[in-house]
Amino acid sequence: MPEPWSSAPDHIESSWPFDSSRGDTVAELIELYEASIARSDNIVARHASLDATAAQVSFGKSAVTLRWLLVHMITETAWHLGHLDLLRDALGAPHVPG
C-alpha cells in the first residue's frame, strides 16, 4: 500500500486515521481519495468476475468475493456521507445537490 497506509501502525488505533491527517489540506485529502478510487478501479478491471475471491482471509472469517468488497465500500461511503449530512445540518450549511 502507498502512503499514508504503508507506515501506519500494525495495530491501528481508532484515532489513527484522524490523527494522521490532521495537517492535510482539503486538496491533499481529495487527491488521496481520488488515488484510492483509481487503485480500486484498477483492481476491479483485472478481474473477469465479481465472484473472484480474495487471495487471503479477510475480516477474520474467510476469503470474500470482489462483489462483497464493492458492496462493503459502497455501504461505508454511504454511511460516511450520512455523517456529513448530519454535520451540515448541525452547522446550518446548505445541502449540495448530488
Sum this structure up briefly:
By secondary structure, this protein is mainly α.
Q: Which descriptors apply to this entry?
A:
98 residues; mainly alpha; 52% helix; globular
- Terminal CA distance: 31 Å
Characterize the biggest β-sheet: none
Count of distinct strands: 0
Instruction: Determine Rg (CA atoms, Å).
Output: 16 Å
> Which residue ranges are poorly predicted, with pLDDT under 50 across at least 5 consecutive positions?
none
> Helix-strand pattern, N to C?
HHH
Beta-strand residue fraction: under 5%
Which whole number gives the mean pLDDT? 82
Task: Describe the protein.
52% of the residues lie in helices and 0% in strands. The chain starts with 15 loop residues before the first helix and ends in a 7-residue tail after the last helix. It has helices at 16-20, 26-45, 66-91. By secondary structure, it is an all-alpha fold. 0% of the residues are buried.
Strand and helix layout:
Elements: H1 16-20, H2 26-45, H3 66-91
